[in-house]
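REQUEST FORM: STRUCTURE PREDICTION
Request ID: SP-0412
Submitted by: Lab K.M.
Chain count: 1
Length (residues): 227
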Amino acid sequence: MFGKKQNNKTTYGIIGMGRFGQALSKELAASGSELIVLDSDEDKVREIRELTENAYVVKSLDKKSLQETGIQNCDVAVVCIGEHVDISILTTLNLISLGIPKVIAKATSVEHGMILEKIGAEVVYPERDMAIRLASRLETARELDIIELSEKINITKMRVPEQIIGKSVADVNLRARFGLNIIAIENDGLVLESLRPNYAFRQGDILFLSGSKDGLMKMNQWAVSHK
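STATUS: Completed
RESULT:
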């Protein structure tokens, strides 16, 4: 049985050793976190015991069975069950009723997530979130070069986002939206250093921007969401 923690480290309970549960367990174990892992598959539990000795085969996820493992002593519990929505919801409810401070549950649909939120869980959508991160990374790939002047200020060279082609500098207003200033624009070997507010962005424009990494990331995320 998993006992109360002996130090200040956050302890995690992971229920379900599918791809998401396994990946999460490996990352948390690598960071030195204390884990208790539950699954009904003996082979998966045996494999995960390489990461933590607190790995248990649990055939039923009712409140009594959960309590017998000691998972109620965790700071955070994560329900990684997605295929069986009914089991996911009931397990989440049982964990919340055991008084675990934070219960996070994986959802496979908006409806699934809404129910989990209503019973008091924090909800994650792994596949959707992964797609958003990938899209953002692909958009960021349009960056051609970055010069870091300080922790807060960078000069970035990047291809013009398709979303703003045909729009004017004043309409897009990168400074107000993202805190980015246009230093110059290059197109077909010509460099424009003094831009008027009515300049319309063109296909092939290379933007030279100054601002923070955070501002650039926000701009990329905006471009992804406005495709």
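NOTES: The longest helix spans residues 126-140.
Reviewed by: T.R.
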